[in-house]
Specification:
Helix 2 crosses helix 13 and helix 4 packs parallel to helix 6 (157-177). This protein is mostly helical. The protein has a single domain, classed as ABC transporter involved in vitamin B12 uptake, BtuC, CATH 1.10.3470. It contains 14 helices and no strands. The chain has helices spanning 3-48, 53-65, 68-92, 101-118, 124-153, 157-177, 211-228, 230-240, 242-247, 252-279, 290-300, 308-320, 322-329, 335-350. The two termini are 22 Å apart.
Length: 366
């Protein structure tokens, strides 16, 4: 090889490496910038209605991250958000926008509660495993059905999953207020309270339930699945170019349905965690909006499985601070939802900037 050829090959490798670094930098800079822009827009909104943005963000920090108790409260709220975000992020890697995680969560919670009612004598570990399996089955079938109709009939999965979420909440209300209602639940219809053996305890040394560990483990395992396995590689090909996937002979249908089932199963387990660790029974409190917050988390994390963990913690902190903000600043309980909405709009606007940050490209090489 001549010196000129070696020089050209070295430059080609260098350019490829720099391009990869710039792509990663863009993937970080744009979401962070969108988050900051959303926070600034909300600060302007607060000033417009006569409230202090400095006081607001100070209270958010104090309530969410200012003490050990605040951290425990935030991390307890993080657990379902991790699994809810995966329900959006996993299908997104195959080019699908699933926003119906809320439906899988509530049905998973109901399935877990009904399982505990049906087999109350099971040993604790076996009972909890059975609740998780029932919840995963319910959530997987619900979201998997959307993936199936999307592949077979070309139905838009975004609209279908949103509509199915409303159907799931209505079905949950019917089940806990009708055939599976506990006679002792007078003011708030629910399934029978879980036996002590079916309740998940707290992580040793922390006042945080085991749902947090389940959520973090799920994020790590999903990252390994997508980035270190042939199934994940095939899924990313489908998400990048479905025609190329067909040409290469990849099982597109099985990938679409399989990842949809997996996504729904994780959301269903989030519902089980809420029943087993927080509520103690399936009731209307399962429809807490975690599925919709999970959409925001997934987009802010750019559907990266590991980035979901810090983003979910941040959004959980906002949620944990809503009560203190409401009391101290006389703001409505929906104030945090306005903040989340502004951040989400900023994220969507930031999508238009990908590939357009010329200062990240570096100078053109002659």
């Amino acid at each position: 090889m001549t010196a000129a050829a070696m020089h050209g090959a070295a430059l080609s490798v260098l350019d490829g490496g720099l391009a990869a670094v710039r792509r990663r930098g863009e993937a970080v800079i744009i979401p962070v910038g969108a988050l900051v822009a959303g926070l600034l827009a909300f600060a302007i909104f607060l000033a417009f209605i006569g409230r202090s943005p400095v006081e607001f963000y100070g209270l958010v920090y104090k309530a969410a991250f200012g003490s050990a108790f605040s951290w425990e409260n935030t991390l307890a709220r993080t657990a379902p958000l991790l699994l809810a975000a995966l329900c959006t992020a996993l299908p997104a890697r195959l080019g699908m926008i699933m926003i119906g995680g809320e439906g899988a969560i509530v049905l998973g919670g109901v399935a877990a509660g009904v399982f505990a009612m049906s087999w109350p004598a099971l040993p604790g570990a076996l009972g909890i495993a059975g609740m998780a399996a029932a919840a995963a089955l319910a959530g997987g079938i619900w979201i998997g059905a959307i993936g199936l109709v999307r592949h077979v009939r070309g139905v838009n999965e975004t609209i279908a999953s949103l509509l199915m979420a409303y159907v799931a909440v209505a079905l949950m209300n019917h089940l806990v207020e009708g055939p599976f209602r506990d006679a002792g639940s007078l003011n708030k219809p629910s399934t029978a309270p879980l036996a002590d053996g079916f309740r998940t305890g707290t992580i040793p040394g922390f006042d945080v339930h085991w749902g947090l560990a389940i959520g973090i483990a799920a994020c790590v395992l999903c990252w390994i699945l997508l980035e270190r396995t042939s199934w994940g590689f095939a899924a990313r090909i489908v998400g990048g170019n479905v025609r190329a996937a067909h040409v290469q002979g990849l099982p597109v249908g099985r990938l679409v349905v399989g990842f949809s089932v997996l996504a729904g199963s994780l959301a269903g387990i989030a519902g089980m965690v809420e029943v087993a660790a927080v509520h103690g029974a399936a009731n209307a409190s399962l429809a807490a909006g975690y599925g919709y917050t999970g959409i925001l988390i997934a987009f802010l994390a750019r559907h990266h499985m590991l980035a979901i963990i810090p983003v979910a913690t941040l959004l959980a902190g906002f949620d944990a601070a809503s009560g203190l903000v409401q009391r101290r600043m006389d703001l409505p309980d929906a104030t945090v939802l306005v903040l989340q909405g502004m951040v989400f709009v900023s994220i969507l606007a930031g999508e238009a900037l990908h590939g357009r940050l010329t200062w990240l490209r570096g100078p053109a090489r002659s």
